[in-house]
Amino acid sequence: MFGDANGMMMFAMLLPFLAALIAPKLTQIMGSKAAWVLALAPAFIFLHIAGFLPQVALIGTSPDHPPITGGYLWVPEFFVSFSWFIDGLSATFALLISGIGTFIILYAGGYLGGHAQLGRFFSFLFLFMGAMLGVVLADSFFTFFIYWELTSITSFLLIGFNHKSAASRRSAIQALVVTGGGGLALMAGLIVLWLTTGTNSFSFMLASTESIEFYNEYLTQSPFYLALLLLVLGGAFTKSAQFPFHFWLPNAMEAPTPVSAFLHSATMVKAGVYLLMRLNPVLGGTTEWLTILPVFGGATLIIGTLLAIRQTDLKLMLAYTTVSSLGLLVMLIGFGTEKAIAAAVLYLVAHSLFKGALFMVAGIIDHEAGTRDITKLGGLRKAMPITFGAALVAAISMAGLPPLFGFLAKEEIYYALIGADAWSIAFTVIAIIGNGLMFVVGFAVALKPFLGEKVETPKHAHEGPPLLWLGPVVLGAIAVLAGVFSSVSHFYISNPMSSAVWGELVNIDLSLAALFHPSLPLLLSAVTVAFGVLAYRNIDRLRTAIDNFYNWFFGGWGPDKGFDQFISGIVKASFAVTSRIQTGRLEVYMTITFAIIALSLFIPMWVYDEFPAMPDFTGEVNFYEAAIMGILILGLLAVIYAKDRLTAIVSLGIQGFAVAVLFMLFGAPDLSFTQFMVETLSVVILALVMTRLKLTAADHRSWRQVIVDGTVALACGVGFMLYLMRVTQGKFDPYLSEFFSAYSKIIANGTNVVNVILVDFRGTDTWGEIAVVMVAGLAVLALVRIRPHGKVVADNDPDAPVNEDMLAKAEASK
Amino acid sequence: MRTLIFKTAAPYLASLMILFSIFVLLRGHNEPGGGFIGGLIAASAFAIYGIANGVAPVRRAMHFHPMSVAAAGLLMSTISGLVSVFAGVPFMTGLWGSIYFLGEKIKISSILFFDIGVYLVVVGAIASIALALEERERE
Questions:
Q1: CA distance linking residue A220 with residue A226, whole number of Å
Q2: Which of A322, A440, A755, B45 has its CA 20 to 30 A from that of A96?
Q3: CA–CA separation, A84 vs A75, rounded Å?
Q4: Which among B5, B30, B96, B106 is the top mutation candidate for probing chain A, defined by the most A β-carbons within 10 Å of its own β-carbon?
């Protein structure tokens, strides 16, 4: 199975799930050293995907180089396939996931070393990794959506990893509700997309420039375009934490730091961005796209950075800048120019590298010094030189300074945004403010804890083990190399990815040489740096100012609080509804059930005007038939006028027996037989229940109740009568009865057609029904055994030995 | 209800009913009857016996818990449905064979065992409900 290229890819996609399976056992045996073994899995995936890069780099250069696809048919009847699709976009994402994932696994081994639940943690991480790889590699909408939801679920598990902490649980649920709710919108959006285009495959839509043009025109002209766009954006904006759905992401920092570094900065939160990038060629370019995305993205960028400065917790500062970076990406995608897409691509790669590294640094500081509060940290550079170095490199990239990859990204952003119109100028200003403030936060995280005087920390700080610092160091090194050798990184990564997002070939030629050519973007970079330095020197003042403004403006209210109000509102509403509907009174349930039965009998007949014709009474009625009718009517009167319940129950039995006799007379012995037995048992069981429940012997109801119950009962009876009359007046299709009569003996060796149908022709139905009988029996048994006041029925216990004394006593008492 | 006549007659009545229920079960394929009806008859037999002579003797007579009887029946039906899968035909296909017993040719089929399973489920489930209801509370 894994021999061919298809099989290898399948294996690579399933490998994280296999790793998730063995991780707990392996961790049990090897402890935190298991990380070294487990990290081989993502490393293998990384190499496997990297093997596609030369091929990916050529995609679109000529018709001979289409995107790479493969896979297996799954449910061909419903056009569902397990297939994948590799182009520049998915290859880059897959490399980020597996590459950063490798170091995250190592880092997790160091960070949670000795933790009792480390195995479980690895398992969750691998589950997430497999899901995330699936998201970016999936070709079919169906598998894409399933993987998408799986990332939400694994994120829930990872945020709630410290499940004994109430804050963790709340954050986990919040993240699940927000991203899961968005997932529902996305599902609707994908279904609309599927029904509109008739295809559920990304690769089919994006196969060539011509097909992209066709689908883009087709979809943007479609009357469903706006609905489709809003639904897809609902999924993407919640996942990628766009304002006003950003609040779950900072709360997700309750998760252990490896999770924050991996899911909530480098990969999962970019799934929404991935989706927008993936659909940009076919959905983009419209006024709606070019308005909604930049506006929400820009708002998220500014709000995120302002809130980041307000924080003093290292992780929260980074989390808010992640929010703003995601905003920046969405804004760039929505800007809709070739340069903007290229800028988004460069920034996305740069961000994954530096933000993952910075989160890991924050984790190391927390791990080694015992606190993440920036005001309580300082002077750690001597104690943790390697960490300091890695942090510095990442911060330089985040600030967009040469020679890091982040510099190229920021230059490209300014190239993309510059323009003479008000729209461009506005977003350029937003970008400058956003970048400047991110500059501040980046250096605050990277410098504040390390420089200055040594501050006494809760733990005596020293350098962490290699497992911890390996990740940030390597990511930093990659950021430097990618910046210096930009022609290589552009050729293999940036260009193919930008081409995939843009829909046509894109060639990025920006390199560090831009540093020596005076240009407007370079000037804007200088302005950003100047603004950043100025803000950094006044960071404490800035923090207080934003804090005051925030408290004044919102007065303690925010989307986070709004979420709580929303949830408690739902709980209250459902409580109100439930307490009205679920009264706990059997009478109410029965009345509602039978009233609905009556309505569902009458309404269709009334709506479709299908009332039966008046039956023909001219036929001769035999004496014995009339007698049975007489018994039926007598039984009915006896039920209605019975003085006590027992009489009523028995009289009901008379009725049932009379019906059974009628069946017999009209040639249905099996039915009649069954009816006799069912009636007998009903009378016995009803009588037993009555004595059991200690009901009063007589049935006292208010006249109002009698009218209501009587009406419902009459309505049901008349409804069924009319319905049956209408059915028998219709044309009778004898196909089935002829078939069964003809073949009962030949095929099934039985002459009793009824029984042959039951046990042979429709045997599977019967099989299901006896399972229902069994379950119903168990349920009744459980109900009967429930006693108020904690009374126990001893001889109801099947395992108890038969107590001879008890028997004798029972005998004697009779 | 516990008159002397009823108490004395009930065991014989119940035995006869159970015998009859087996007869109904076995003739079901060609004449009116079958597992479901048979099961109902047997269940009423146990219910009557219980009303007349108390629950404990019924439980002793049944030996197994009625729910276990029902579960065994469900298992039996499932297996007799599955047998055909191993014989290479779709689930629930009837398989037929015949054996000679005391010189008589008797046709045996997986369908018969399926029907017996139905019988056991109905007996077990209904009898266990009836018996549970008949039981008196003990303070």
A1: 8
A2: A440
A3: 15
A4: B30
DSSP states of A379-414: --TTT-HHHHHHHHHHHHHHHT-TTSHHHHHHHHHH
Cβ–Cβ contacts within 10 Å for residue A86, how many? 25
Q: Structure tokens of A220?
A: 């943007």
Nearest alpha carbon to residue B25 among B66, B65, B73: B73
Predicted confidence (pLDDT) per residue in B58-97, tens digit = 999 989 999 999 999 999 999 998 888 888 888 878 888 7
What single letter denotes the amino acid at residue A117? Q
In a domain, A70, yes or no: no
Q: How many domains does chain B have?
A: 1
* ipTM of the modeled complex: 0.92
Helices H / strands E in chain B, number of each? 5, 2
Burial grade of A136 (CB within 10 A; 0-12, 13-18, 19 or more): buried
Residue pair A11/A44 in contact (Cβ under 8 Å)? The answer is: no
Instruction: Look at residue A773 and tell me if it is in a domain.
Output: yes
Supply the DSSP string of A125-156, one letter for each residue: HHHHHHHHHHHHHB-BHHHHHHHHHHHHHHHH
Q: Which domain holds residue B29?
A: 4-134
Distance CA A517, CA A788 (A): 87
Instruction: For residue range A131-179, list pLDDT tens digits in order.
Output: 999 999 999 998 999 999 999 999 999 999 988 888 899 999 999 999 9
pLDDT digits (tens, 9 = 90+) for A615-663: 777 778 888 888 999 999 999 999 988 888 888 889 999 989 999 999 9
Do residues A770 and B74 lie in contact, with contact meaning Cβ atoms separated by under 8 Å? yes
Phi, psi of B91, deg, nearest 5? -50, 135
Residue where one domain finishes, among candidates A645, A665, A696? A696
Strand ranges, E, within A184-312:
none
Predicted TM-score (pTM) of this structure: 0.74
Identify which of A248, A236, A226, A300 has the alpha carbon closest to the alpha carbon of residue A274: A236
Q: Which of A684, A778, A806 is opposite residue B47, by nearest beta carbon?
A: A684
Q: What share of chain A is helix, strand, coil (3-state, %, to 5)?
A: 75, 0, 20
Residue A274 in domain: no
Six-digit token pair at B39?
A: 């099961």
Residue B66 lies in a domain: yes
Query: In sequence order, what DSSP letters do the residues of A286-305 get, joined into one string?
Result: SHHHHHHHHHHHHHHHHHHH
- B2, B111, B131, B134: which to substitute to probe chain A, counting the most A Cβ within 10 Å? B111
Does the CA dihedral B56-B60-B63-B69 come out positive or negative? negative
For residue A765, the chain B residue with the least C-alpha distance is: B92
Q: How far apart are CA A389 and CA A404, in angstroms?
A: 14
- If pLDDT is split at 50, 70 and 90, which confidence band does B137 have? low
Please indicate whether, in this complex, the C-beta atoms of A759 and B34 are within 8 angstroms of each other: yes
Read off the amino acid at residue A11: F
Which of A649, A666, A696 is where one domain is finished? A696
Answer for the pair A104, A262: CB distance below 8 angstroms, yes or no: yes
CA distance A732 to B53: 51
Which H/E stretch holds residue B65?
A: none
Cβ–Cβ below 8 Å for B118 and A759: yes
Q: Residue A413 has which token pair? A: 């952003």
Q: How close is the nearest chain A Cα to the Cα of B84, in Å?
A: 12
Q: Count of CB contacts below 8 A, A vs B?
A: 169
- Residue B10, CB-side half-sphere exposure with 13 Å CA sphere: 21
The answer to whether A673 contacts B68, with C-beta atoms less than 8 Å apart, is no
Number of domains in chain A: 2
- With CA atoms as reference, report the closest residue to A270 among A350, A339, A380: A350
Asked whether residue A279 is domain-assigned, the answer is no
Residue B139 domain-assigned (yes or no): no
